[in-house]
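Possible regression after last week's pipeline update?

I re-ran a chain I had predicted before the update to compare outputs. Posting the input and the new output here so someone can diff against the archived version. Not blocking, just want to make sure nothing changed silently.
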Amino acid sequence: MAQISVNNLTFYYEGSYDNIFENVSFAVDTDWKLGFIGRNGKGKTTFLNLLLGKYEYKGTITASTVFDYFPYQIKEEYMELPAIDFVWELKAGCEQWRIICELGKLNLDAEVLYRPFCTLSFGEQTKLLLAVLFSGENDFLLIDEPTNHLDSEARETVKEYLKGKKSFILVSHDRDFLDACVDHVLVFNRQSIEVQAGNFSSWWENKRRQDIHAKMENEKHKKEIAKLKMAARQTRQWADKNEKTKIGFDPVKEPDHKGKRAYIGEKTRKMQSRVGQMERRMEREIEEKEGLLKDIEETASLKLMPLSHHKKILVSADRFGLKYGTAKKPLFDSLTFEISQGERIFLNGSNGCGKSSLIKAILHSAYKGQEEEDYDMVESGTLKTASGLVISYISQDTSFLKGSIKAFCKERNLKESLFLAILRRLCMERVQFEKEMQDFSEGQKKKVLIAASLLTPAHLYIWDEPLNYIDVISRMQIEELILTYKPTMLVVEHDVRFRENIATKVIDLFFGTIAEINEGKV
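New output (post-update):
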């Protein structure tokens, strides 16, 4: 059993005012299935890059193993080639038979190796690259968010695959995925780093108990400090009052007062000594109290401003179908459903079955004549939206986010101070607010879109894969928000735990066939 030892690690990006890591030390074993947990921006991907030797740093990282990183970056000139032509460049020394064995465990035929890479679905590409990753020997693998953009079926396949593996660090914000795949967690807290046996749920339960204990201890220390302050103040007042009796006496009336001066001085000295002892005790109490709340994750409550519509049913479809203009087969057909006020409907199905297309059809119906975007879908059946329907929409795409936050708020008529307050509650650092949005991480861009949606009063909130790259703590904040305000929603999201906790109805779409509607949480 080998170890990866990190000692006094300090790192910051050139031009940054803050250290990402400062004198960090910990150790992990290389046969662990290690889950990486932390808020966006806490340095998870940065740490993986430090292991790969991409940046210079202070301190030491000691390891007797070879690291390999997922996802691989595929060069543009390779996209038209079959993967078999370039896998050796991705992973030196990997053997074809090993890749084929791993593909079988991922329920994928070996023929994907021989098709042009660009013709593979996103799920097929992910599985193929994971097969290449695990085709080596004795590597310690760094797997960075493998489930982004994967549909539920592909996630389940990758989850079952990783359950049978070891010797990796897995960065994921999917609670169900982490619980199934890891046996240890490496946690980047607000101000510390910890390593713990177990999965996400066991760590979160332990953290919840530790936070409760820390808050109780904090309250106890606060009360003790208050008592000491009061006692010190009273004792100091007594000492000052006693000291004043040494002067201003009448020598005729009090001929023996001169002899009392030494007694009064000694009594005052003892009182002042007691004050000093109390102040030193206060300092010790304050020191003990200071570290108690440093790592508490306060899932600060967010606010939502849903509008109430005069109609109960906001969207209705009757035997509705969609297909691309030139396609012979529809994406789906004969879909009948309604979205009533207060419902939270999740669209579920494999990639390419028409989830995002259905969302576009609803937006097209609600804002017909107002949308500049070309709408090239052929519809069958009927799709109706309530008149005057206001929709708050989050797209999968974040590439349009450019420029400053100030300009973004002005363009969308958002109050900047409230917008920044929501981003702070989602744990975005203030230093990020000075950057251009194109320089944000994908997780930070998603938080910008979520904050904008939360500040937009609407009858219907349509969110298309809003949680990609969003950290797990923020996901739980958003869950709490939705359960508190109960907005009407149509959501595409493959996070199983999120869907189980939020959905009132699930629509399963199947490519080219009739959809199924499941009432209640699924």
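Follow-up from reviewer: compared with the archived run. The chain has a mean pLDDT of 85. Marking as no regression found.
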